[in-house]
Write a structure and sequence with these properties.
Layout: E1 3-6, E2 23-24, E3 27-28, H1 29-39, E4 46-50, H2 55-64, E5 71-75, H3 81-88, E6 96-100, H4 108-124, E7 130-136, H5 137-140, E8 153-161, E9 170-174, H6 185-197
Parallel strand pairs: 1-4, 1-6, 4-5, 7-9
Antiparallel strand pairs: 2-3, 6-8, 7-8
């Protein structure tokens, strides 16, 4: 399966800075996402969607990962997450993994389990087109306050989508492991403390 990292947002909740390049322990957020994708034996190509909002992120990726043949930068308009995602669909012919660029504790093991689960579910029900990964609120709220809550489930920032626009028949995957998504300055402080303790 190929993967798409969404890295073209305006970073409005972080004061309009390039969130993918925010450093924690001298490492930019986006590198915390790229590394486990590179380590996963379930992932082939890695596409990274940048935009006019993240020009420095694009330069960083091209410079640091220039020797990786399986990493490709996609330029999007930067008009919004959904708009940028729709602009990227043409690069895929099969279901693909979509990951936010601001997850600090993603692992190849988690990625592999998500990909395997999607194909398992699809083998049982071929109509399933997408997968949304969630964490129970009670696990998340032990550590920090969630920004978004869907009936007691917190979106992780990881999905699998089919290469088509519009509605997709979705399955939810609930995992019992905290994955930290840095959306706000408060999330950033929590993420820094979390990684210090590891």
């Amino acid at each position: 399966m190929d993967a798409l990292i969404m890295a073209g947002g305006k970073g409005s909740r972080m004061g309009y800075i390039e969130k993918p390049l925010i450093k924690i322990k001298d490492k930019p957020l986006i590198s915390y996402v790229i590394q486990p994708l590179l380590e996963s034996d379930k992932i082939n190509k890695i596409y990274i969607a940048t935009s006019p909002n993240t020009k420095t992120t694009k330069k960083f990726i091209i410079s640091i990962y220039k020797d990786y043949k399986n990493i490709k930068v996609i330029e999007t308009s930067g008009n919004g997450y959904i708009e940028d995602l729709n602009e990227c669909i043409k690069y895929f012919s099969k279901p693909f993994l979509v990951v936010s660029s601001d997850l600090i504790n993603l692992t190849s093991k988690i990625i592999n389990s998500i990909v395997d689960y999607f194909y398992y579910v699809k083998s049982k029900n071929p109509e399933i087109e997408s997968l949304s990964v969630m964490i129970p609120k009670n696990i998340y709220s032990k550590y920090t306050n969630p920004t978004i809550d869907f009936n007691g489930l917190i979106p992780v920032g990881i999905n699998i989508l089919s290469p088509k626009s519009g509605y997709q028949k979705e399955k939810i995957m609930v995992i019992d492991e905290l994955i930290i998504n840095v959306n706000t300055p408060e999330d950033l402080k929590f993420a820094e403390n979390f990684l210090k303790k590891r």
